[in-house]
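[Backbone geometry]
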Amino acid sequence: MFDFSSQVVLLAGASGNLGQAVTRAFYAAGARLVLLDRATDRLPQLFPELAATPEHLLLGSVDVTDAASVEQAVETTLAHFGRIDVLVNTVGGYRAGQPVHETPPETWDFMLNLNARTAFILSQAVAPPMLAQGAGKIVHVAARAALAGAANAAAYSASKAALVRLVESQAEELKRANINVNCVLPGTIDTPQNRQAMPKANFSRWVSPEAIADVILFLASDAARAVHGAAVPVFGQS
């Protein structure tokens, strides 16, 4: 069991299936949580136990594709807690189904913005306070699709590959400042949405959000202090 007592964890994408599992895992480990969500009031409904105490911050109306919005969330966090020890970014999405020559430019832009731009903006925003305090952990969620392109999924694959390259680059920039930057590569995640989309699949082979959360907590812990620029496969049995 990891102990994050007294550590401040900034978590983007907290309302998603994976984000909820990661939030609850850090909460169980004693972290002080700052949760970001684009919706105004969704977080208090999902996490009433966190909304009821000043030990945690639930920040709605945060657009993680917008640098100013993220910077305001970081400033609010620093004003409240004075530090950010961990950034976990679970923001992401999937859009595919067409070959490259039929893919609308809007789909390409949407995937790059959602899966790569968000990671860039979040990583950029937390680096200065982590440098000032002399320590930090940054963990992003990429995907197995980052490892190789597949037919009819170029925009998604390219966006996740861009995220991995961002992780590798920032890890090289920050590792001598005692800041670790890494990511996980989930396979198919066992979510209600994926079960509905693929009803004939063997769900038992998919990876659960809770299993991915365990790996994220490891990368955010001191046990991963020597790990920099890693893209950790978390495929389950698929």
User: Anything to note?
Assistant: The mean pLDDT is 96. The first strand starts at residue 8 and ends at 12. Strands lie at 8-12, 32-36, 57-59, 86-89, 136-141, 179-186, 231-234. The helical segments are 17-28, 42-46, 48-51, 67-81, 105-133, 154-174, 192-197, 209-219.
